[in-house]
Amino acid sequence: GGFGGAGGKGGNSSASAVGGFGGGTYGSSDINYTLVAGSGGGGGAGDAASGGGAGGAGLKVNVGLGIINIKGFVNLTGSNGKDDTANNDRAGGGGGGGGHLILYSSNITVDNSVLNVSAGSGGNTDGNTDDGGGGGGGGGRIYLVYSTITNTSVTTQALAGGGGVGSGSAGTAGTIRHNSTAATFTDNAPQWFSPS
Cα 195–135–37 angle (5° rounding)? Predict the structure, then answer.
């Protein structure tokens, strides 16, 4: 699946084990407040179907003049595609695209935290010549919008998913944007969004 980065193409090793094309990028690579989520990976098409991984969720927190204080993990990663190693002529499922995180506040504080919107990897096969591994998902997007930020220790990740064993190709990385702004923040109640 794609989102901030494109999904990788599944391996094509035979007429009966054909990997699907990777999902494309969508949404804006610039600061944008429209919340979306990572797309699911495509299923593998071999002698038996193997499912693609689920896309990462979307989470938007807008507290206006309030403070966003994060200490720990925010995990909006895509899932790995399903493996299919049962026999020949198999194809792994595609990895799910990474998710979407938007934090909007006049003051963001992060302490010893990991913000992760990485993609899932493509499903594996046993690597026979008649097998096609799943393509990796594309990384998601992180947007941080603030007047001030206190960053004690944070790791932000929007990594691409790797291609599955059987010539699946990797996806591409997503995007991470920080926007320090002097804009007037309004005092909003906390808003939590997750697409269904």
Answer: 10
